[in-house]
């Protein structure tokens, strides 16, 4: 589970990351990455809307995304904010699929080096 320090909790931080962050669209998720306010910590935020499904399905998707984020945390350079938006297709995606997609999208964005603040 992600510690409190590794979570985006303010709406303004979500909004800034989605509006000004670099974006990668996959089959199940959209990933936004931008330099964060704390240079020592990677923070994750998750957006799982009602289009994903009923509440228990949305919660399952959110838990899978959080578990994947926890495993990817050591691989990321510090000082980044990452927001993952679940698309409706994620409702039927397995954990391994979500993990692979998140890993691929974050590595593509960070390797490009075009993170906007």
UniProtKB/TrEMBL annotation:
Transmembrane segments: none annotated. InterPro entries: Ribosomal_Su5_D2-typ_SF (IPR020568), Ribsml_uS5_D2-typ_fold_subgr (IPR014721), RNase_P (IPR000100), RNase_P_CS (IPR020539). SUPFAM superfamilies: Ribosomal protein S5 domain 2-like (SSF54211). It catalyses: Endonucleolytic cleavage of RNA, removing 5'-extranucleotides from tRNA precursor. It is an enzyme of class 3 (hydrolase). Its EC number is 3.1.26.5. One of its GO terms (biological process) is tRNA 5'-leader removal. One of its GO terms (molecular function) is 3'-tRNA processing endoribonuclease activity. RNaseP catalyzes the removal of the 5'-leader sequence from pre-tRNA to produce the mature 5'-terminus. It can also cleave other RNA substrates such as 4.5S RNA. The protein component plays an auxiliary but essential role in vivo by binding to the 5'-leader sequence and broadening the substrate specificity of the ribozyme. Consists of a catalytic RNA component (M1 or rnpB) and a protein subunit. PANTHER family: RIBONUCLEASE P PROTEIN COMPONENT. Belongs to the RnpA family. This is Ribonuclease P protein component. It comes from Leifsonia poae.
